[in-house]
Queue: 4 jobs
Job 1
Amino acid sequence: MSMRIFKNILVGALALLGLLAGEVFAQATSATVAVSAVVPKACRFYSGPASMTISHGGVQIDPTSGSNATGSTTLNYRCTNTVLPRFDIDASGTYASPKNATVSLAGLAVPANTVAASITVTATGGAGSGLGAGNDKTATIDGLITPANFSGAAPDTYSKDVTIGIEAIP
């Protein structure tokens, strides 16, 4: 190989090395990072468990009464800011506000007696103002047993654990 060809190859290699070195030193001193965050629509209960006694103003139903036996309790909830809740009763799969369902209260006697109770859950707190502390809203759970459902009922203690679900309106 002649000296001239060798010099040309050497000069070309050094030039290429210089370009690569320049590439390393030409890197930026800053970069752009795309940052994002998503706050989802969400509602959660922040109280419970609760209890409710359906009666005629006390702890019992008067079977001779011609008026409805009623009861009420509340649960605290929070929803993402501006979001409204919907409720479900005993995983019926349909959320609404207010939500109504009829549940069967079972007696303790054997064989078990039952009494039908109407349960309604209503959001009384309005739209959410955030999931942080101090942003509680109130869900009111009302129970009602009509005279037609209790007037012929056997003496017993009737009960059921009713599951209330909550979701944000999509």
Job 2
Amino acid sequence: MILFITGPSGAGKSTLAAAWVASRNREVALIDGDHITSWLRLGETSAVNAASPDIPVERKAGYYRFTGEILAAAARIYTDRGVDVVIAQLTGYDPPPPWSKGWDRLEPLAPVFVVLLPEREVCRQRLVGRGHWQDMSSYDFDWQAWENHPRALFLDNSHLSIDESVAALDDLLAQHGYTHGA
């Protein structure tokens, strides 16, 4: 199983992914796509957000395309060895903007997409609590466009603890027939 967790900044993608992986009774690889993109940016003005408006679209395209290729290659290597994969990354679907192409290489591997969509104020508070900047522009992506994807599931984790979010994710996956990796 490949689980791709996305959502706006502050939604809890990385936190939920790590907690979900820790709760499994089998080997699961955790990959943070945003960290890969930051690593590729090497020395740009903001190592946190490749969507920064000060970076030319062509350069963003390269970062996201290469990140997608790395994610797909890693996911394929892990799944070929019987290891489940969880990827956490901020990526819209509307369809994805031209500069985010590259993770289309992941699509043939049939990942299950989980879109975390907590309330905007909850995301803002989480970012502030982590000492991050309060750029809420990712919240304005058309997250509902994911409804058009056949393997996209939505989870509002606004008022859930991490443990409750893990349980809610397990329930959501089970409701849709995804039980591998429990």
Job 3
Amino acid sequence: MRVKNENLLDDSGPVDLSLSADLKSVWLGHIANYSIQLQFTGAPQGNFRLQASNDPGRIDAASGVLQVSNIAIWTDIADSAQTISAAGDHMWTVENAGYTWVRVVWTQTGGSGTLTSARAYVKGI
């Protein structure tokens, strides 16, 4: 069984919620279930949502950026948008994911804050 707890932030640590740097995408090959947990501080205003892709990507590439460099189609996952208006946390739990890749997207509408933690836990065959 494949089980992994993965940090989605750049290795440099917390990032400003302008999210000028992308969060890492997660390869879901052989995964049945996953959860993604975010923690943020400050006074952010905007929304997080999940996007998925079935493009093959390059899972054997040397870095996360190269792994997803040829993914062209990202589709919003229905009902995954979460409006944020204060410091806090949020978690998505997904069962029976039927796609190859998932990522978190932030759309800022105002305010400012810091994403202090972003982790994915995956479990599958």
Job 4
Amino acid sequence: MTPALLLLNLLPGLLSGIPQISGGIKQLIADVTASISAILGSGVVTGPSLNTALAAWLGIIAALKNDPNLPANTLNAIAQLEKAVQAAATNDAQASLLVDWSKIAVIATV
């Protein structure tokens, strides 16, 4: 499992476990979790879909960083989580440049 996929699996639990977050952000987390679960379930976890999923989590993290109800230690943990997601997104984007997606095709079984 790549670091990006690992993060996609861990982020819902990590973020929804923060007790002080608002109901609106909890709903965003639930919505993004459902969407990403559909992506992961589809098996299409390369190229643009993976980076889009990571970008969605970065949006949630940005909202959390601006939540005035969160204590400093939680904000520090969120900042570290943001670094991990940004690194995964950057690495995935760089790796995808090495792949010619037009040459990827389903191979029929014999």
